[in-house]
């Protein structure tokens, strides 16, 4: 299983376009830029809903209204982040799949946070009908903030291996 | 430059810079800070441009998001200062770093113009064209600042 995966990663990082992205001057920051711009949109909108569920800004709009307003840009942000993230991965795929911080991020924390996000976003329509959100919504929002912070923490730790 | 040398030698700055855990924590705060800062600013700008959150009035949406923008800015400044201080003599003369800081300051200026004028724009029957240009400038500058920041990291090896 593992050698099969390494084979795919090896092919991925030797695609001519990927090799060019690594070797060309100024190119690499553009890939990071795609990842981080997407993440700004994704996490900016995600955390905004989480803080609203926790109870911030009750007088402005309900969590349901906010969730609805941010929905499409939220997912567009993830799409951009994944595009950049996949390209970043491709540039050094063999190294990444053996990196413990990367494995923790992609294998455990990211799937958890994403699943939790979908659940929270769905539920915010019912939790967020009234200005005051129920206790379970506050807890769920807080949980999601913690989950995304841990995803980011694992990502920041990747270069240390 | 003398000030930069002094900054680099502050004991707690040295401690943080030389510790993998602490400097990673500072980077984490910098990332999370600008996700909040840029993400929330972008949504308000996109709303002014008529591209996002059209079901909400401008002022309440901004009321919800601006506190997060300011929290993000606080996190970015605090962590950014530590990142700068640790290698101040390297950062300070680098052109890309100066370009980045210029873009950030301009973006903040445009952000504040948006924030100040929101109530007026919200009362108008439709968002004025000038407002849209300002929002567009703010959005472009922030996206540019992220790229410039990454170019700084690429130009200065070892950070």
Keywords:
heterodimer, A: 161 residues, mainly alpha, B: 159 residues, 84% helix
Can you give a write-up of this model?
The complex is a heterodimer of chains A (161) and B (159). Chain A contains seven helices and no strands. Chain A has 161 residues and is mostly helical. Chain A has one domain. Chain A is elongated. The two termini of chain A are 23 Å apart. The model of chain A has no long low-confidence stretch (mean pLDDT 94). Chain B has seven helices and no strands.
Q: Please tally the β strands of chain A and state the result.
A: 0
Mean pLDDT of chain B: 92
**How many structurally independent domains of chain B?**
1
The share of residues in helices of chain B is over 70%
The tally of domains of chain A stands at 1
The quaternary state of the protein chains shown equals heterodimer
Structural class of chain A: mainly alpha
Element pattern of chain B in H and E: HHHHHHH
Amount of helix of chain A? over 70%
> Which structural class do the helices and strands of chain B define?
mainly alpha
**Unreliable runs of chain B:** none
Distance between the termini of chain A: 23 Å
The overall average pLDDT of chain A, rounded, is 94
């Amino acid at each position: 299983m593992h050698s099969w995966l390494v084979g795919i990663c090896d092919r991925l990082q030797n695609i001519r376009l990927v090799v060019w992205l690594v070797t060309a001057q100024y190119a690499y920051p553009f890939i990071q830029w795609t990842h981080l711009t997407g993440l700004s949109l994704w996490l900016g909108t995600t955390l905004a809903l989480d803080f609203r569920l926790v109870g911030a800004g009750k007088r402005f709009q309900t969590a349901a209204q906010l969730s609805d307003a941010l929905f499409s840009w939220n997912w567009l942000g993830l799409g951009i982040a994944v595009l950049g993230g996949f390209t970043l991965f491709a540039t050094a795929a063999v190294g990444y799949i053996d990196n413990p911080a990367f494995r923790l991020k992609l294998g455990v924390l990211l799937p958890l946070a994403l699943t939790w996000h979908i659940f929270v976003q769905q539920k915010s329509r019912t939790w967020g009908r009234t200005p005051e959100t129920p206790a379970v919504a506050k807890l769920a929002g807080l949980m999601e903030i913690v989950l995304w912070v841990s995803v980011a923490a694992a990502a920041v730790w990747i270069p240390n291996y | 430059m003398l000030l930069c040398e002094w900054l680099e030698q502050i004991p707690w700055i040295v401690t943080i810079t030389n510790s993998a855990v602490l400097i990673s924590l500072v980077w984490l705060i910098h990332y999370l800070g600008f996700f909040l800062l840029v993400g929330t600013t972008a949504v308000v700008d996109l709303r002014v441009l008529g591209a996002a959150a059209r079901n909400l009035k401008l002022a309440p949406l901004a009321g919800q998001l601006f506190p997060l923008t300011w929290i993000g800015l606080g996190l970015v400044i605090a962590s950014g200062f530590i990142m700068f201080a640790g290698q101040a003599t390297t950062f300070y003369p680098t052109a890309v770093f100066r370009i980045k800081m210029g873009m950030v300051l301009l973006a903040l200026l445009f952000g504040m113009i948006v924030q100040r004028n929101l109530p007026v724009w919200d009362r108008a029957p439709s968002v004025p064209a000038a407002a849209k240009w300002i929002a567009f400038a703010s959005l472009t500058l922030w996206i540019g600042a992220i790229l410039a920041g990454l170019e700084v990291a690429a130009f200065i090896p070892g950070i």
